[in-house]
Design brief:
The protein is α/β, with parallel strands linked by helices. Helix content is about 30%, strand content about 10%. Bound molecules: iron/sulfur cluster and FE2/S2 (inorganic) cluster.
Length: about 350
């Protein structure tokens, strides 16, 4: 039996502040939980300011102001100013719908450090179809132009799936045209809402292999002009990703109503007990809340992870994916070729459907 490390307490580096679940878009791969927090339950400005101060005291360096669409918050400028005043590097993650040019200028004045805009495709018609929102693509272009004009660093976030993966080169070209310094090629993660649309979104193996070769070519072609971040999508990988850098190790998420989660999808695992910033200081939640301690370290692991040489490298993969695919959050992520359920991943990756997306409507 392998020795298992104790749950060494690291300092968190990043905080994802989910300011609201409200969002005008209807993406079929929405990463919001299935049960959404209501507007009237959202934390107020003063509580967010307290959370940012507590986060900074805990060691957090960066805050990602996210949602839903953070632009739905009327107090986004005050929230940004509070995060900046707490000494945090502030990154706005937005669909660009709901943030005007005037708002982004006010955010820059409030200390915003970085902007990340998601794009659904390289052309307006297909991008708006995927997002389920007419006119969204034009808004993204306009906001990106303004962000660059204000000299804020811009990252373009491209979520890939079967309908757009063959447009990867055009999407990177678009990011360059917009003046982004980085493009993040992220593949759909199949938990929560995306599970409903898995067969409609799943790329083919041939598409994934072509895309991987193209990313290498594009990195060389655009070296020094744009950073291209990309990983192999889970269902076609042999080894899992170290999801969220390890559970309770690097980051925390605060939901619109104040629950603190070890990852954005943690509520999809049933039976976990989450604490709320309304009732507990953030430091206590980080060190002592049952959800954070559930999968810290390696003592919770079962075989094959418990005796695997990679257990401190990938931490057994993604807990949410293990739960979604096996019903057991302590199981090895089935993406791993050593996991007993690995064959199931290949079976699911082969299921494709061209039925219309089930859009996420708030
Ligand atoms: Fe990672 Fe577990 Fe697979 Fe080892 S057996 S590579 S720890 S998921
Ligand atoms: Fe929750 Fe990976 S998304 S651990």
């Amino acid at each position: 039996m392998a020795s298992s490390s104790s749950a060494v307490l690291h300092k968190p580096l990043g905080l994802l502040a989910e300011l609201t679940h409200r969002c005008p878009l209807g993406c079929p791969y929405c990463s919001n939980p299935l049960a959404l927090d209501r507007r009237e339950d959202e934390l107020d400005t003063a509580t967010w300011a307290r959370v940012f101060n507590e986060a900074a005291a805990l060691g957090v360096l960066q805050v990602h102001l996210s949602g839903g669409e953070p632009g739905a918050r009327r107090d986004l400028t005050e929230i940004t100013a509070a995060a900046h005043a707490a000494g945090l590097y502030t990154n706005l993650i937005t669909s660009a719908v709901g943030i005007t040019e005037k708002t982004v200028a006010a955010l820059a004045d409030s200390g915003l450090d970085h902007v990340q805009i998601s794009i659904q495709d390289s052309e307006a018609s297909t991008a708006d179809h995927i997002a389920g929102y007419d006119g969204g693509f034009a808004r993204k272009r306009a906001l990106a132009t303004e962000v660059v004009r204000l000299r804020l660093p811009l990252t373009v976030n491209a979520v890939m799936h079967r309908a757009n993966i063959d447009h990867l080169e055009a999407m990177v070209d678009l990011a360059l045209t917009l003046g982004a310094s980085r493009v993040e090629i992220a593949h759909v993660q199949y938990y929560g809402w995306a599970l409903t649309n898995r067969a409609m979104l799943m790329p083919t193996r041939a598409q994934v292999e072509r895309a991987a070769r193209l990313v290498e070519e594009l990195r060389q072609r655009h070296h020094g002009r744009i950073v291209i971040d990309a990983v192999v999508p889970d269902y076609y990988a042999r080894l899992p990703k170290p999801c969220v850098g390890g559970w309770g190790r690097r980051s925390l998420n605060v939901t619109p109503a104040g629950k603190v989660l070890p990852c954005h999808a943690a509520e999809s695992i049933t039976g976990l007990e989450f604490w709320n910033v309304r009732e507990h200081p953030l430091a206590d939640i980080w060190t002592s809340s049952p959800a954070f301690n559930a999968f810290r370290g390696t003592a919770w692991m079962k075989e094959p992870c418990a005796s695997c040489a990679r257990r401190e490298i990938d931490f057994g993969g993604c807990r949410c994916q293990a739960f979604a695919l096996t019903g057991d959050a302590r199981a090895a992520d089935p993406v791993c070729h050593l996991a007993p359920e690995h064959g199931r991943v290949a079976e699911l990756a082969a299921v494709h459907s061209d039925t219309p997306y089930v859009y996420r409507r708030m």
